[in-house]
Write a structure and sequence with these properties.
Helices cover 45% and strands 10% of the residues. The longest helix is centred in the middle third of the chain and has 21 residues, at 285-305. It is of the alpha/beta class and 469 residues long. It has 3 domains: 77-265, Ribonuclease H-like superfamily/Ribonuclease H (Nucleotidyltransferase, domain 5); 270-364, HRDC domain (DNA polymerase, domain 1, Orthogonal Bundle); 376-464, DNA polymerase, domain 1, CATH 1.10.150.80. The relative contact order is 0.08. The protein has helices at 18-28, 30-38, 81-94, 137-143, 156-166, 176-183, 192-200, 220-231, 233-247, 250-256, 285-305, 309-312, 315-324, 329-333, 340-359, 379-396, 400-403, 406-417, 431-445, and strands spanning 47-49, 56-58, 77-78, 96-104, 112-120, 123-127, 149-152, 173-175, 449-453, 460-464. The two termini are 28 Å apart. The strands form 3 sheets. The chain has a 6-stranded mixed β-sheet with strand order 3-6-5-4-7-8, with helices on both faces. A two-stranded antiparallel sheet has the order 1-2.
């Protein structure tokens, strides 16, 4: 059975005489604390610190107990370069470590790194990147070391932080969210807390998920929340890795994690952002040519000024300018919502972008943005493919969305209805997915399968047209 209770976290402090531990347990209520510490997913005290010669409890919320690191509360947070480098050296020697970050980007374009969390051999340690003298260059080198495995959960945004600063890409990643989707039912895009509860039988607090990570000093609750984010990653890696090996799906995971080495994931062309502007679907091709250059200008300004793109100019203003096509700053100022300060700062640049958009040849104007929804005539066929996909995913113990997306299925149905072959670019027709389910989906569209319900049950039965299962 995959789910199992997490064993006691290893720590250098574990060598403290057991008599001292027992004595303190008795003071606080021996039976109650023993039950809270070692049984089930029920909420329990947050911190179990083991300073030299003493065992002390600090209650700080409804989260599980954990031995985070040797020493008292302050030892959980590294704020000097020597200790940071020593931690990174230990990670390199061990050959793997758990990794997470806390960052903010509500008021900036680029993510602002506020905290680094590292889990190693059952310890969890936080590093303060805002502390004086902290340099992350060695961490960047470690992330790129092919001999060191970096364990993350949905780590794309964490890696983006370092790519933005150095264009560094991780080489060897184990993403527990992706791994879970490949070997567990109902685990599509599963969150870290849910996965920990499901596999480790530990319930984590979510109380500090949206907090001011840039403020100092950090509170005990913030550190508790942050450290729990890496404390169970090694255990999850072991459990999921074993499950993937048993199912023969390790190669699938390698294929799925290849996106971490794609720099284009973080380096998007500003000229492609127009299609995401709210209201773009209502514009004609010429207006879209204007919107394309305007959205690209906004993106570049946001990067240069390190401001959220909508703080530069909102989507509705970009759409309005694209429609009105003002030829002068004076005409621009006539539009509703164009404030004087905005015009003074950006008016000339915007008019220049409008001229560029108007100069685009007709044949080079972008196609209309289709947000009208999918052809309703294809809806029933799409639903049949979806049933087939979900049934196959259930048989395989994995998340349906990792076999094929709804968009993949629609592309197959649309191509079939048009009497043409589906594009080889459709994800479900490449790699391991093609062999596992892609060919069968094409066979279903060709009439080679039937779908029915088992008599008296809700179980879906899929049969080939020749009668085989």
């Amino acid at each position: 059975m995959l789910a199992q209770t997490v064993s006691s976290v290893r720590s250098p402090a574990a060598s403290i005489p057991s008599s001292l531990v027992r004595a303190n347990f008795m003071i606080l209520g021996r039976f109650f604390l023993f039950r809270q510490l070692f049984q089930g997913p029920a909420p329990a005290p947050a911190f179990l610190y083991l300073p030299t010669g003493f065992c002390n409890f600090t209650l700080s919320g409804s989260v599980p107990p954990s031995i985070y690191t040797q020493g008292a509360h302050k030892a959980m947070l590294i704020q000097d370069q020597n200790s940071f480098e020593d931690l990174l050296r230990r990670c390199r020697e061990h050959g793997s470590f758990a990794f997470d970050t806390e960052f903010l980007r509500e008021n900036t374009y680029w993510p602002e790194l506020c905290l680094i969390q590292i889990g190693l051999r059952g310890e969890a340690v936080a590093v303060d990147p805002l502390a004086e003298g902290i340099n992350c260059d060695l961490l960047v080198e470690l992330l790129q070391d092919p001999d060191v495995e970096v364990i993350v959960h949905a780590g794309q945004q964490d890696m983006e932080i370092f790519f933005c600063k150095s264009e560094a890409l991780p080489v060897r990643i184990f993403d527990t969210q992706v791994a879970a989707a490949l070997c567990l039912k109902n685990a599509d895009s599963i969150g870290y807390s849910r996965l920990v509860e499901r596999l480790c039988e530990v319930k984590l607090s979510k109380g500090e998920s949206r907090t001011h990570w840039e403020r100092r000093p950090l509170t005990g609750r913030q550190l508790d929340y942050a450290l729990n984010d890496v404390l169970y990653l090694e255990k999850l890696r072991d459990l999921l890795g074993t499950r993937l090996r048993e199912l023969g799906r390790e190669v699938w995971l390698d294929e799925e994690l290849a996106f971490y080495q794609d720099g284009n994931l973080y380096r998007r062309d500003p000229m492609t952002f127009y299609s995401r502007v709210k209201g773009a679907a209502r514009l004609d091709r010429r207006e879209l040519a204007l919107l394309r250059v305007l959205a690209a200008w906004r993106e570049e300004e946001a990067r240069r000024r390190n401001k959220p793109r909508k703080r530069i100019v909102s989507d509705d203003k970009l759409v309005e300018i694209s429609r009105r096509k003002p030829a002068s700053v004076e005409r621009l100022s006539e539009s509703r919502g164009m404030h004087r300060r905005f015009i003074e700062r950006n008016g000339k640049s915007i008019i220049e972008m409008v001229r560029k958009g108007l100069d685009v040849p007709n044949e080079e104007c972008p196609s209309r943005v289709n947000r009208e929804g999918r052809d309703p005539e294809l809806g029933l066929a799409l639903d049949v493919l979806d049933i087939f996909l979900k049934t196959r995913a259930k048989e395989l113990d994995m998340a349906p969305a990792y076999l094929a997306s709804r968009g993949d299925l629609y592309d197959l149905v649309k191509a079939s209805a048009a009497g043409r072959a589906a594009s080889a670019d459709v994800r479900v027709l490449s790699g391991w997915r093609h062999e596992l389910v892609g060919d069968d989906l094409l066979g279903l569209l060709a009439g080679n399968y039937s779908i029915s319900l088992a008599q008296g049950k809700s179980e879906v039965i899929i049969r080939r047209s020749d009668g085989s299962g």
